[in-house]
Structures are given as C-alpha cells and as structure tokens.
Amino acid sequence: MVQIEPEEEIQIVTKDQINFGENKKLLGRGAFGKVYKCTFTDPEGRAIHAAVKIIDPICKDADIATERRRIYDEFRNMMIPRHPYVIHLLGINMADDLMLIMPLRKECLKKYLACSRTPVPVNRLSRFCSQISDGMMHLHSHNVFHCDLKAGNVLIKDEFHIEICDFGLACPSIDDKGRYRGVLFIDRCYVRINSF
Ligand SMILES: Nc1ncnc2c1ncn2[C@@H]1O[C@H](COP(=O)(O)OP(=O)(O)O)[C@@H](O)[C@H]1O
Ligand SMILES: [Mg+2]
C-alpha cells in the first residue's frame, strides 16, 4: 500500500506570485481551460516550476459567480489527503483570472503514448494501470468520483510514476441529502445517477 501524506493547507495565490516568462507556454488545453507553464513563488519566496490552469468562461455571457463556482467545485474535489498518484494543488486564485496552480509535470499519458518512438514496455504500462487504480481507489475512498478518466487526464511525473489530474467533472459520491450517487459509463460518456 502507498503512503498518504497529511493534508496541507491550501494557499490563496495572488497574480504577482505567478510568472509566465517572456513566452507564455501552453502545456495543454481541454474542454474547461488552458494550462500554461509558469514559475510560482511560494510564501517562503521559493521559485517552483508549476502549471497553472486558467478556466475558460463557459460562454461569453457567463457571469463571474458561475465561473467562480466551477473553479471552486474543481478545487473542492481536490481537497482530499494527498496521494502519490493524484496531482495536488499548490494554490488557487479566485480573485483575478480564476486559476489552479499545480506542480509541473512532463506531459500527459496520451501524448507520452503517442510520441514514444519505441513501444512502451508492458511492465511500465501495467505499473501505470496499477497506479491509476490505486489513485482512483483513493478518490473513491474520499467520496470523490472523477467522472473523466482518460489518458489526457493522467500526467507523467517520470517513467515510473503517473498522477491523475483534471477534476473539472468530478463530483462528490454522496449528494447534499446524504444519498449515494453512482456513475455509469455509457457510449463513451460518464453518466451520473443521482440517487439510489
Ligand atoms: N501539472 C501539469 N503539468 C504539465 N502538463 C499539464 C499539467 N496539468 C495539465 N497539463 C496538460 O494540460 C492538459 C489539459 O489539462 P486538464 O487539467 O485536463 O484541463 P481540461 O479540464 O481543460 O481538460 C492535460 O491533458 C495535460 O497535457
Ligand atoms: Mg482534461
């Protein structure tokens, strides 16, 4: 079994702690936002290589309260004890651009598999599968359904270590009234079953 580190306090980050450098480098984009490389200065003044996810407005007319709610929901789903196979947050900014700050990783599993010049060894793939299962078990044991598990939402930390990311579609497995939710995978989509 893997060792779980104690939960850390979340940092509220201001814009001046994030430096994109001269050429803002896009690391990836998905349905909910864009992820850029940056240098994050932590409260002790240490510069850390980081990735910052900036949430896209849902639509042109979306109001700031709705946008805040989305980033807050993603942030809340990540507020579980740390686990080696789940990305953790370095901080959050809800005042300006609505940003989530995470440690910088190499790339996602999708890109890693697509760009590998030689076939990825089977023992490495099975190690990744076992780590993904371990990470998902950790989420479920803290009442979080990820609801969007795919290679683009798995990060390569190094060739021996993955981390699950992207909690934009995640939801608590128990609703406000204490009823259990379920998730079905139908026609390549996750469908939430609201109470049973
Ligand atoms: N911490 C990170 N380090 C490096 N690349 C990242 C990191 N987080 C995300 N990415 C890249 O950005 C892409 C989109 O991030 P993701 O969180 O899945 O956003 P979305 O909700 O828009 O799908 C990922 O597929 C990955 O390629
Ligand atoms: Mg994604």
TrEMBL record:
Record's subcellular location: Membrane
- What biological-process terms (Gene Ontology) are attached? cell surface receptor protein tyrosine kinase signaling pathway; response to stress
Q: GO CC annotation: what is one?
A: plasma membrane
Where would I find the Protein kinase domain in this sequence?
Answer: 21-196
Stated membrane topology is:
Single-pass membrane protein
- Name the residues that bind ATP: K53
Molecular-function GO terms, alphabetical: ATP binding; protein serine/threonine kinase activity; transmembrane receptor protein tyrosine kinase activity
Which UniProt keyword terms apply here? ATP-binding, Kinase, Nucleotide-binding, Serine/threonine-protein kinase, Transferase
Q: Could you tell me which Pfam families the record lists for this protein?
A: PK_Tyr_Ser-Thr (PF07714)
Q: Which family does it belong to?
A: Belongs to the protein kinase superfamily.
| Listed name of the protein | Protein kinase domain-containing protein
**Originating organism:** Panagrolaimus davidi
